[in-house]
Amino acid sequence: MSNVHLRKLCITRGSNAVVRDLDLQVEPGEFLxxxxxxxxGKSTLLHSIAGLIDLAAGSIEIGGIDMSHADPSERGxxxxxxxxxxxxxxxxxxxxSFGLRxxxxxxxxxxxxxxxxxxxxxxxxxxxxxxxQLSGGQRQRVAIGRALVREAGVYLFDEPLxxxxxxxxxxxxxxxxxxxxxxxxxxxxxxxxxxEAMTLATRIVVMQGGSIQQIGTPSExxxxxxxxxxxxxxxxPSMNFIDGEVDAxxxxxxxxxxxxxxxxxxATPGAVTLAVRPEDIHLAPSGSLxxxxxxxxxxxxxxxAWLDCGGHPLSCIVHDPRPLAAGQAVRFDIDMARxxxxxxxxxxxx
Length: 350
Fold this sequence. Notes:
Layout: E1 4-13, E2 16-26, E3 31-35, H1 42-50, E4 57-62, E5 65-66, E6 77-80, H2 92-102, H3 107-120, H4 136-148, E7 154-158, H5 166-183, E8 186-191, H6 194-200, E9 203-208, E10 211-216, H7 218-223, H8 228-233, E11 240-246, E12 251-254, E13 257-260, E14 270-276, E15 281-283, E16 289-298, E17 303-309, E18 312-318, E19 329-334, E20 340-342
Parallel strand pairs: 3-8, 3-9, 6-7, 7-8
Antiparallel strand pairs: 1-2, 1-4, 4-5, 9-10, 11-12, 11-14, 12-13, 14-20, 15-19, 16-17, 16-19, 17-18
GO molecular function, one term: ATP hydrolysis activity
Domain ABC transporter: 4-234
Organism: Massilia yuzhufengensis
């Protein structure tokens, strides 16, 4: 396993800066996930680590060696792309071993590595098949196996599950987590899917506009978002944002929505944005706040209820099977110990 250190990285496309002055340290054996919306620069960053994109400035160290201008083949990486990119006329075994064979690796070594990767990815029974005889999930396993046979110090994944259906994504997500545990290798994974990020990552790097917004464990990024963008990007439904004011008695007010801030959330009196996750809004007959149900979304094991509280739209997750309907008046409480406060102007956490 190897560490990856990015220093003051700048990547441009024409006159546009895609990544600006980015610093990032990836520890050996870490599963780091680059998360963000389309166009935020996460895939560009990954491709620069792989050596597929030239740098405008800055440096890339892999395993303590400066690889800023090294060829991709010299960087000691294995990469899995969004598309499978398998050779249609070759068997699974030939696809997985292709890179090793053209590099002149001994036949016995090639066989050992392919067999090991096939066992890890449950491909032993498929080694003589061709890609057309495989399902989408099996093809992606082969693409992952092709990277694994390199026995690289760092593995890079560029949205490898985005072409699969929801069930296959969940299955391969679990297998990738187990694979990382078995190999202990350094892995850097790009996705816009927050479920993938939360379940796979040792740490998450949230990106927007070519810059890092927050780095932390999945729980840190989810529970204590650094700014409003991070808060709104993670979670489904996303966080509820309520613009209001805090008074001298540390009460938050936004029309009929009034609540006391707990000691750990003290704020300077003035305008603030209060953010609360849907699971922290609890419907209860004895609730101190009142709202009207505007929409109910049945989700199987829970419901998502959309509320109107004095013109403030709120989403909440309801786990009991109580009947809810649009137009119904309900009472609720907010778990104020779990809210976040943001500066309305800068969006930064208070």
